Amino acid sequence: MLYNGLIDLAHQKGLLKLEVEVIQYPTSENGNEAVCRAIAETKYGERFSDIGDASVKNCNKMIASHIIRMASTRAKPDVYATSRMSA
Hints:
This protein is an alpha+beta fold. It has two helices and three strands. Strands 1-2-3 form a three-stranded antiparallel sheet. A hairpin with a 4-residue loop joins strand 2 and strand 3.
């Protein structure tokens, strides 16, 4: 399923709120790896979380200067996929 379809399905299943927080900023000490956590909350009070990561090792040159944004983008569909919102 494509990203937009996954978001639409999550809203149909009761997605109320989605927050993303950076839990690791890219630095030379951690190999320039960013890690973000997405937290989804449904109108039924359920909360789900998952993480996404990005670094220069797993992104192309065009994305390399946007590592935090890519980690965030990867975390969001992961939280949908691991919750019952995608079932």
